[in-house]
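Figure-free illustration: sequence to structure, shown twice.
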Amino acid sequence: MYLSDERIIELFFDRNDQAVREIQTKYGKLCFSVAMNILGDREDAEECVNDAYLGAWNSIPPNRPNALSAFLVRITRNLSLKRLRYNTAEKRGGGYSLSFDELSECIPDGCDVSERVEESELSRYINEFLRGLPETDRRIFICRYFYFDTVEEIAKRFGFGVSRVKMKLSRTRSKLRKYLTERGLFD
């Protein structure tokens, strides 16, 4: 039985090292999956996940995350992307490069997509767009472009064929491009 997120956060605030063991037990597989999807290397992924636990320890307190899982995934994701950049462009692994290549059709200004995703204005528009999607389409998009799951993994998770997932992603990217263009973010 897992402790509630609220209880785990209280352990962090109490500076009780059991908090790290609890997030490792409860969210370790999720964080590892995200890191592995980005890096494609087990050792690097494990190191980034361990660094994410340290990052959580160092930032709670003062932060009190509303969604502990999202907070941990964001830390893991950022550390993994930083490690990937460090490991050089030729060594890109997992689904990271392919996912951003797919998204580049929505952001056609020639900028590096990985840098643009971090910009707050773009993030705000993408979040607004995602809130307007049907739940299944939103979840598929997030699995692909936030967690970097493969199309095959997504198809299995949702009980769809691979071609249906590809079509949903393609249509969602087209809608996103139109949405961003209508808001004047891109020419």
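We now fold a second protein in the same way, so the two outputs can be compared directly.
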Amino acid sequence: MIRFNKLSILAVAAFGFVLVSCDKNDTPGDTFDTSGTYMQNDQMGRPAVNTVFNASADKNTFNVTTPSAMGAIFAPKFLNNLVALDAAIKANDPTYVRYSTNALGMSPQILTTTLATDVLGVSMTGATSLATLTGRNLTDDVIDIELKFLIFGGTDGTKNPKLTSDNVNANDKPFLATFPFLAAPF
């Protein structure tokens, strides 16, 4: 006669559960369909560039254009929009200093050609910063940098002070000191 105690029955049940769980033909528990074709909907290496320099349908086209094709398509549009924006601001504000060269020494044509290709450069030897177009740090104040050093701040970043800040100077929550570094959720 075979005697089973509670521990033996529990061990047999656990072993049976393990054997059943190891079936190689299990289907995934999620229902996410990965068989379709997916489309890119947005890219934002340099935030706000698309928002400022493109209008209506061009915004969506920019978001799905391959970076290697962006410059040829968008640089002329960006230049036209920068010139128009510059003229409109000057017409409404006589104290406005017109764009001629930014803090990086870029003329309007060089700036718009650079920004029309939405990729981030990477500095292999120095500091990374959006302010020098050598990348982007998590802590970079992206909008202020774009306004101050790239568009409205002139050669030293001090021109047109009314147009060189969005006045949002800090994150709502501090960044984490370890990976993934992003601020904790609310």
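Summary for the second example: Residues 49-163 form one domain.
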